[in-house]
Amino acid sequence: MHFFYPEILFYGKINKIVPLLRRQVMLKIALCDDDVQELSRLKNLLRRYQEERQSAIKYVAFTNAIELLQELHRDRYDVLLLDILMPGFNGMEAAHEIREFDNRIKIIFLTSSPEFAVESYAVGAYYYLLKPCTAEKLFSVLDRFFWDSQKEEAALHIKTASGMLRIPYSRLEFLEVINKRLYFHLMDGSVREISGSLSDFEEELLGREEFIKVHRSCIVNMGCIQELNPQELITNAKQSAPVSRLLCPKIKEAYMKYMFAEKGVR
Predict the structure, then answer these.
(1) Residue 217 — pLDDT band, cuts 50, 70, 90?
(2) Fewer CB in 10 Å around end: N or C, the chain?
(3) Which helix H or strand E contains 48, and what residues bound it?
(4) pTM across the whole model
(5) 3-class DSSP assignment, residue 97
(6) What's the CA gap between 155 and 167, in Å, rounded?
(7) Which domain holds residue 82?
(8) What is the largest CA-CA distance in the chain?
(9) Is the four-CA dihedral 190, 196, 200, 206 of positive or negative sign?
(10) What is the pLDDT of residue 8?
(11) pLDDT by residue (tens digit) across 92-105?
(12) Is residue 127 domain-shared with residue 173, that is, in the same domain?
C-alpha cells in the first residue's frame, strides 16, 4: 500500500531539482548484490537521495537471490535493485522466478556487463544500469519511478495463460467466482477469465473503499452499481451480479455512504 505525505516531490537532474508534486509516495526498495561493499555504497546513495529529495524510502539489503526471493514471497516491494552476476542463483534467474508471482515490482538491473540488456526485456525490466552506479544515474531512475507512480492509474495485476494482465480498478465492475473460475467483468462489458478463488484478490480489492463483497462468490465496485435489489444488482454495463439476501441491508447502507462520499456529502 502506498502512503502520501504533504511534501514536495522533486524531479530532474541532481544539479537542477524542480518541484514536481505536493505529495510523495512511500517507496519500498529491495537491494540484492553479493558484493557487500557495493551494497554499502548503494545504501549510502539511497540515504543521500532521501535527504536531497526529502523522499520517504524504506530499503532492505540481501547478499543472495535465495534470501531475496523468500522475502518477496512474504512482503511486497515497489523497486528491486538487482545485481545480475552473482554466484549460484544469478540475478537474471531470480528475475524470471519473481515474474512468476509478481509482475508489479520494478526491476532495475545493476551489472558491469551490457550483455544481458536484451534478455532484461523478457522480464520487463524497468531499467538497466551499468556499474559503477553513480548518484546521477540512480537518482535519475528513482525520480522517473516517482513520476510514473504518480501518473499511473492504480490497477489489479492478474496472471493469465498468455501472460500478465493489468486491469485498472476503475474499469473493474465486479469479480465473480464460479466453479473455481474467476470472471473479471469490465466496464466495457467484456470479461476476463482465469483459474483461482475469490480469496486470491479479496484482500486487495476490499482494501479499497469502492469495493464491497455482496455475495460469497462476488465482489463489486460500488461506483459501477446502477440497480440494487435483494436478489441481484445491475451494473452500468448492464451486467448482472448476485446479491446475498442476508447482506443486502448492509450493502445498501455501504453503497449510500459511498455515493454520498463520492459527491462530497459527509
Answers:
(1) very high
(2) C
(3) helix 36-53
(4) 0.53
(5) helix
(6) 5
(7) 4-151
(8) 63
(9) positive
(10) 28
(11) 999 999 988 887 89
(12) no
Q: Which of 151, 167, 187 corresponds to the end of one domain?
A: 151
Instruction: Round to whole Å and give the CA distance between 263 and 255.
Output: 12
Containing H/E element for 262? Answer: helix 248-262
Let me know whether 95 and 183 are in one domain.
no
Identify whether residues 218 and 191 lie together within a single domain. yes
Look at residue 241 in the predicted model and tell me its pLDDT: 96
Handedness of CA 205, 208, 210, 216 (dihedral sign): positive
Contact 31, 42 (CB under 8 A): yes
* DSSP conformation class of 102: -
What sign does the CA torsion over 10, 167, 251, 201 have?
A: negative
What cell was used for 218? 462476488
For residue 150, the model assigns a pLDDT of: 66
Residue where one domain finishes, among candidates 101, 129, 151? 151
Name residue, grid cell 446502477.
Answer: 226
The more confident residue out of 149 and 172 is 172
Average pLDDT over residues 245-257: 92
Residue carrying the nine cell digits 440497480: 227
Tell how many helices (H) and how many strands (E) occur in the chain: 7, 19
Does one domain contain both 197 and 111? no
Q: What's the structural domain count of the chain? A: 2
The answer on 46 and 116 residing in a single domain is: yes
- pLDDT, residue 4, reads 28
- pLDDT at res. 123: 81
Answer yes or no: do 160 and 195 share one domain.
yes
